[in-house]
Design brief:
This protein is an alpha+beta fold. Helix content is about 40%, strand content about 30%.
Length: about 100
């Protein structure tokens, strides 16, 4: 079974409240086997628009990645994130 990956591009508007999002999201990430491959850090623009924070999270499967996002636990965290940050998020299937 191919792994699933969240790709999130985020501009944080309120860094202090964003910490609340990170804390609230942790139980969902743990429950669905999330492994962070990239989280923030330096970015070098090659083409197109970029955001300040870029995250890649690996899940055991595409189904687990989507289920994590749709879980009640993550939706609580997502509501916080949506208040304090602008984000583009997608799930892709690994090869």
């Amino acid at each position: 079974m191919a792994k699933g990956y969240w790709i999130a591009r985020v501009d944080v508007r309120d860094a202090e409240r964003y910490k609340d999002y990170v804390s609230a999201a942790k139980p969902a990430f743990e429950a669905y086997g999330a492994v962070f491959l990239a989280r923030g850090g330096p970015v070098e623009k090659l083409e197109g628009d970029i955001r300040a924070r870029n995250v890649i999270i690996e899940f055991p499967s595409m189904e687990a990645a989507v289920a994590c996002y749709n879980s009640p636990e993550y939706q609580i965290a997502a509501a916080i994130r949506q208040e304090v940050a602008n984000a583009d998020m997608l799930v892709v299937e690994g090869v």
